[in-house]
Amino acid sequence: MIEISTSPTSTTLVITGDLDLAERDQFPEVAARVVGLRRQLVVIDMCRVTFMDSTGAAFLIALADSARKRGGAAALRGADPRDLFVLEVCGALEMFRLDPDHRCEDARPASDFSAPATT
């Protein structure tokens, strides 16, 4: 499930559950809605994401690319090291601002996966 909220300067997506091939049917509608809101910053809250595959990564990459084309940015908060690794393997991690200070309220159990090095 993807919930969208807005402020005067940002759009926030709160993603719950899997972000994968099985959920891809909702991605075009969500992306169109986010683009239509025309906010400079797209914040993607991944605190409740349980799994992400390359299809989910492609969706996030499309959101970041769209924000960049409008002169804005995309920020990830609460992303698990596994999710960051998927974006890194896709060569897209640098497209996102990472929020290292964010602490998820209902944090999922930490994985044993090591976080990728970021520059």
From TrEMBL:
Positions of the STAS domain: 1-96
Annotated coiled-coil segments of the chain: none
Highest rank taxon of the organism: Bacteria
Alphabetized PROSITE patterns for the sequence: STAS (PS50801)
Entry-linked Pfam families: STAS (PF01740)
Listed name of the protein: STAS domain-containing protein
Organism the protein comes from: Cellulomonas persica
